[in-house]
Amino acid sequence: MALERTDKILSSQNVASRSEIKSMIRSGRILANGKRVMRPEEKYDPETTVFTVDGRELEFCRFVYIMMNKPAGVLSASNDKHAKTVIDLLPPEMQRRDLFPAGRLDKDTVGFILITNDGELAHKMLSPKSHVYKLYEVECDKELTEKDVEAFAAGITTGELSCLPAEMKITGKSSALVEICEGKFHQIKRMFQAIGAEVTALKRVRIGEVYLDASLAQGESRYLNNEEIIHIISRKHGI
Ligand code: URA
Question: Is 189 in the pocket of ligand 1 (CB under 6 A)?
Fold first, then answer.
């Protein structure tokens, strides 16, 4: 049983800001197991305590997992002084102080980004050792051939870039699906540069076994369901 301060528990649940919560406690608006909380520093077990806020029961939720269809032009970061981030795009009802994007997509890359507050799951999803594959739709400025497929399958190695074998499936004259389980800086773009091509459009469409929900418009988000939370760290792969 891990006890936490009342103001910390409630602010993690997006009830209000920490200072607002303090004043709500002072005015007697917060109950814990039916008894008035007197001080913000009173400690409770968030998993077992029933809090009520203005008479409404709070459903405690430790971790959240959000699928966003990232548009171009926003940063995969929690906050930035100058540019819009994926967190800024979340609707107010999904906002929580502890959210971060699990991994990065470039500013001009679109598609599936996971936003969570679960550091352990994010680590599992991102570590190359976990072999969680991510699938990208790629368009480039060169006609792709079987030689390129073979080069990816052998593992691209040039200069400072050394990649594990990757599967490429040509889907059009200069478009392909590519699956990788690493997340090196600009990895897909650099892999294509290594075969003499510039990436002109990049979209992530799957993480683990979970596909980007086609009903999400760019910039929209939804919570993952329980099955998707398990499958997002699946090692299964193949295009
Ligand atoms: N590879 C890239 O080059 N960019 C991304 O955003 C993701 C993978």
Answer: yes
- Tell me the per-residue pLDDT of 128-169, one tens digit each, with 9 for 90 and over: 999 999 999 999 999 999 999 999 999 999 988 999 999 999
Q: CA-CA distance, 197 to 220, in Å (whole number)? A: 31
pTM: 0.91
CATH class of residue range 4-57: alpha beta
Is there a contact between 82 and 105 (Cβ–Cβ < 8 Å)? no
Let me know how many helices (H) and strands (E) the chain has, helices first.
6, 17
106 lines ligand 1 (CB under 6 A): yes
Task: Choose which residue among 70, 76, 106 to substitute to test ligand 1 binding: the one with the highest number of ligand atoms within 8 A of its C-beta.
Answer: 106
Cα–Cα distance between 182 and 133 in angstroms, integer? 8
183 CA from centroid of ligand 1 (Å): 8
Topology adopted by domain 63-239: Pseudouridine synthase (3.30.2350)
Rg (CA), the chain: 22
